[in-house]
């Protein structure tokens, strides 16, 4: 999954907590978060980030995928354990549902 996205909160990828990335589903495979609805449990995700001018990578394994209403903001909540949460619309047109993929560092 190669995408550009927006971070929900400022933090390094190695920090504790819920690292949330949001991206658009524009309906074109491989563009932004359009492929996220097809991601399977167990898939590997690598996040690249620049910290102090140096590239840092962190790999994650998908542990959960669910579709929720856009109003279910608890998926944005911070946690004590490290995890990655990716969020996009479930379809590329106006919708009130979001695909939420959760992954743990490996």
Structural category is mainly beta
Which ranges are low-confidence, i.e. pLDDT below 50, for 5 or more consecutive residues?
A: 1-11
Count of β-strands:
6
Q: Largest sheet, if any?
A: 6 strands, mixed
Going across the biggest sheet, name each strand in turn: 1-2-5-6-4-3
Give the helices and strands as they follow along the chain. Answer: EEEEEE
Report on this model:
The protein has 106 residues and is an all-beta fold. Helix content is 0%, strand content 44%. The protein contains no helices and 6 strands. Strands 1-2-5-6-4-3 form a 6-stranded mixed β-sheet, with no helix packed on it. The chain is globular. Residues 1-11 have low confidence and may be disordered.
Feature tags:
106 residues, mainly beta, 0% helix, 44% strand
Concise account of the structure shown:
The chain is mainly beta. It has strands spanning 6-7, 18-22, 44-51, 54-69, 83-89, 97-105. Helices cover 0% and strands 44% of the residues.
Write the layout of secondary structure elements.
Layout: E1 6-7, E2 18-22, E3 44-51, E4 54-69, E5 83-89, E6 97-105
Parallel strand pairs: 2-5
Antiparallel strand pairs: 1-2, 3-4, 4-6, 5-6
